[in-house]
Amino acid sequence: MDFGLSQDQQLLRDAISRTLADTCPLDHVRECTEGTASFSDKVCSALGELGIWGMMVPEQYGGLGMTMLDAAVVAEQLGYAVAPVPFIGSHVLAPLALAQGGSQELKANWLPRIARGEAQVAVAIAQTVEIRDQSSVDFDGEKLDGTALFALDFLGADAFLVADTAGRMHFVAGDAAGLEMAPLTTIDRTRSVGELRFSGVAGEALADDDGSTSSRLRDAGRVMLAADSLGAGQAMLEKAVDYAGQREQFGRVIGSFQAVKHMCAEMAARHEPCRSLLWYAAHAFDTAPDEAPLMACHAKSHTGEVHRFVARTSTEVHGGMGFTDLLGLHFWFKRIGFDRQILGGPEKVRAEAATLQGWTQAA
Question: Is the CATH code 3.40.50.1820 the one for domain 7-115?
Answer without folding.
Answer: no
